[in-house]
Amino acid sequence: MADLLRLLLRVAEKAADVARVCRQEAPLFQLLVQEKTGDDKNKKFVQDFKTLADVVIQEVIRHDVGAQFPEMVGFIHGEESNKFENGLGESVTVTVCGTEEETATLLATVLDGNHTAASLLARAIHQDPATIDANTDGLSVPLSPSELGIWIDPIDATSQYIEGREEVLEEGHLSPSGLHCALVLIGVYLRSTGEPVMGVINQPFNHKDPAGGGWRGKHFWGVSFGNVNVCSVSRPKDGPAGGRGLSAVLSSSEKQVVKETLTSLCGPDKLMYASGAGYKILCVIQGLADVYVLSEGSTFKWDSCAPHALLRALGGGVADLTRSLQSSSAAQNHQAELTYHQPYIEAKGADRWANHGGLVAYRDCSQLCSIISALKGKL
After folding, report:
1. In 3D, which of 45, 215, 218 has the Cα closest to residue 117?
2. CA-CA distance, 8 to 219, in Å (whole number)?
3. Region of residue 194 (phi > 0: left; psi between -120 and 50: alpha; otherwise: beta)
4. What is the greatest pairwise CA distance in the chain?
């Protein structure tokens, strides 16, 4: 497991490099801008570049993990399909090839012959990232890769990534929007039970390097299985609520009844809003908010698997909101924890992997109980 964690930290950093290159290199950035400008978009690009950036990152992770752990190949799932149609109507499957030149040639067919952009992307895909410093020595978990599956969200909060607002992160404060909300999420789950056992989160746009002006990232990770609970983030020292009352983060589009109920419970100054499901759960992990509540089934397994593992390592979790509200006792709340191994058979396409019952991400069970008690009978 320590070897798998080290690999995931490395491939997440490579993915973050690809995300940064797409914004920093002019030929690639122009393709992002085209995606942003709607009517002015180059009609040649049948598939938007935003999606190609997502797919490239997903396939890099799939390729590198599969190369080191071939027994996981059939169980590495992602948000995106890797099939594209270019301007000539040709169907192209995006994969990572054996050499940088071969990958560039393949990408050029998707990008309708834009060799400059294809070469820049291929270089980022094939370069080795800097070694990630993580204290994984001595991490011993009695699981083998053949028991595990992976969920990848290559760029969570894609709209923030495209919009590209460069907000400055203030230590200890949640920042509601901006590039920092865009995250690379890699979650590992147990195939037999679906429980999340490992998560890696990379925030490619955490801060700017004062010397060079380029973006620098930050990574977070956690492992939770049996008696092993290790996380790169520390639990807040002042206990669950720290005597300061409950705080919650929501989507700005959340139902009015949820907003009103949580305003009453937390107080208006403790109710916050932010972009991106992954970023909102990261805010809970970091202690910037106590809970994240979502009443809609608008997130997916790839959004929640990685941060769920970190919360478990900290003593918290991510519960299905609907099932928690239907539960007759707080003791059953653990049975409402999200799992990641089985599709929702009544749905089709991506919706098979939606978190249909909404969710509550929490760091402490008492916080979950407070939320469920407040919302019972309201939804």
Report:
1. 45
2. 11
3. left
4. 62
% of the chain residues with pLDDT over 90 = 67
User: How many Cβ atoms sit within 10 Å of the Cβ of residue 332?
Assistant: 12
Three-class SS state of 229: strand
CA distance 19 to 57: 8
pLDDT in tens, 174-219: 989 999 999 999 999 999 999 999 999 999 999 988 888 889 999 9
- Span 44-94, pLDDT tens digits: 444 467 678 888 999 999 999 999 999 999 999 998 888 877 667 778 898
CA–CA gap between residue 240 and residue 287 (Å, rounded):
9
Contact 283, 310 (CB under 8 A): no
* Contact partners, residue 199, CB within 8 Å, separation at least 6: 185, 186, 187, 188, 221, 222, 305, 306, 307, 308, 309, 310
Contacts 24+ apart (CB under 8 A), 268-274: 270/245, 270/246, 271/247, 272/174, 272/176, 272/247, 272/248, 273/176, 273/249, 274/174, 274/175, 274/176, 274/177, 274/181, 274/249
The Cα–Cα gap between 108 and 62 comes to: 21
Tokens (6 digits) for 47:
């598939």
pTM above 0.90, yes or no: yes
Q: Report which of 124, 39, 107, 52 is spatially closest to residue 81, judged by C-alpha positions.
A: 52
DSSP annotation of 83 reads E
Catalytic amino acids?
54, 79, 153, 155-156, 158, 303
Nearest to 178 by CA among 206, 209, 200, 201: 206
Per residue in 11-42, pLDDT (tens digit) is: 999 999 999 998 888 888 877 766 555 544 44
